[in-house]
């Protein structure tokens, strides 16, 4: 498994600042390894806007190794941001208003022309977890099996309560903004690898996606690596929460792959309740009810998380991840999600204070 994290870059006053290109160049001038399309992990990468930067871990098997890689990626990006005159902060949307500056490149320019305001206002940061699969057939069986559980991962990671200087009332407003893309969101079961490929090709043919890399499903087959890529989560405020999301994502993939091997058919959930479950998770995070399979009925968030852990217990036990996952879940319940922490800081020192605290928490 591996984790990609997108971060916001801010200036001394906490306003988003377009220094990503300068940060990447500073990192590479200092001897940092450029990001390699063929070999995941290491380096720094541009994102859609100059006010963002991305890191990725190398593929890991051990959860402790992954945790070290996540923290090292954050340190790497923070050091480069500092050299460029900015600060790194792991929040999924900016608490304060700020500009967006499109990153250079023909593809980004084509996106801006095609999607207009959606691109201009797209300053959101996510956490993407890659988990290896044997082939596309296993990958699609996994996608069909994990969909109803993905909103719980969104709720656990919720870290974007503010947008343009105001409290949106959502724990993850990023999930709302992200779903403005025509190819984003949950998907109904595909049934086969060929059906998945036909769906992707059809969306590209319509112009709703410029290329397969713009298939922004909550979980997809990665166009770059032999993995299932789970993309539903906000970037997590704290590294511990990113590790938790990754461990649960791997547990979901392993559980679904085992069930497919055993001939257990996935719950055939229509996309409408999946969209409702995703909205519910983004609206209240862990503070309200969540919808869980098989019935997709609302239950308290604690019960939903407990149900997810029960569903994953055999896989988490076999991987050795269960004790750490239980510890990380307990820590999350104690301090709250990133959205909870941001709101608490805002009460103390207003939105500029949120950024200062979040910069510290990003590297804690």
Automatic annotation (TrEMBL):
Any idea of its EC number?
6.3.2.2
- The keyword Disulfide bond appears for this protein: no
KW Disulfide bond (keyword) present: no
Q: Name one Pfam family in it.
A: GCS2
Name the InterPro entries for this protein. Answer: GCL_type2/YbdK_subfam, GCS2, Gln_synth/guanido_kin_cat_dom, YbdK
Enzyme class, top EC level, equals: ligase
Q: Name one GO molecular function term.
A: glutamate-cysteine ligase activity
Catalytic activity, as annotated: L-cysteine + L-glutamate + ATP = gamma-L-glutamyl-L-cysteine + ADP + phosphate + H(+)
Alphabetized UniProt keyword annotations: ATP-binding, Ligase, Nucleotide-binding
Instruction: Fetch the NCBIfam families from UniProt.
Output: gshA_cyan_rel (TIGR02050), PRK13517.1-1 (NF010041)
- Write out the similarity annotation: Belongs to the glutamate--cysteine ligase type 2 family. YbdK subfamily.
Q: What does this protein do?
A: ATP-dependent carboxylate-amine ligase which exhibits weak glutamate--cysteine ligase activity.
Mind telling me what this protein is named? Putative glutamate--cysteine ligase 2
Organism name: Cellulomonas dongxiuzhuiae
